[in-house]
Amino acid sequence: MERKLMIAPSMGCCDLFDMERQVRIIDEKSDFLHMDIKDGVYVPSFGIGPEFLAALKDKVSTPMDAHLMIKHPQQYLETFAKAGAAYITPHTDCIEGDAFVTINKIKELGCKAGIALNPSVPLETIEYYLPLLDKVTIMIVDAGISGQKVIEQTYDKIRKLVKIREKGLDFLIEADGSMNRDVYRPLYEAGADMVVLGPPALWNKADDFEEAWAIMENELESELN
User: Fold this and answer.
1) Is residue 156 flagged as an active site residue?
2) Which of 36, 39, 134, 193 does the annotation list as catalytic?
3) Are 113 and 133 in contact (CB under 8 A)?
4) What does pTM read for this prediction?
């Protein structure tokens, strides 16, 4: 069976004036709902909060992934678990002092544990707790700053991660940042399981969201076939 490239639209990009329709379309057609949580401290921008997840908790069936681009994720694990996150994904450099405690806490809360790595962070950083993880998010640009060019060296990081996983580990490999049709094929060939879709990959494709979705699907299919 041919491997699929899963998609995870970034839900904070939804149009507030068309929110219900967009959420329904995304929930029906996506593999994950990507929730970018940004505090303006760890990254120089702000995102959605736990209230956003809580509002969708009983309205969607697709797993919600809380991507915690925040300085002190340990303080908010219970909050996001209660809000309905199926996955909680902090950044490795924010938990390096208590990584095992943090990951085990995520699992104790009934969630899947992810970790996100910025482009400059080596895979060796997560070597010892990688067996505990359910997902690894490889940032292909620096987190939280829009308009960047994809850092192609991150493809090598994905390839290395695939080889590590072949040694008996089981986790998803997600690519996040400046996603568009030009990088679908390289990421797929490198071994990514899933890509995060932001405005350039989805919302900016057309004024009407259904049309934008159709364009994105066609681009994804054409690049992978």
Assistant:
1) no
2) 36
3) yes
4) 0.96
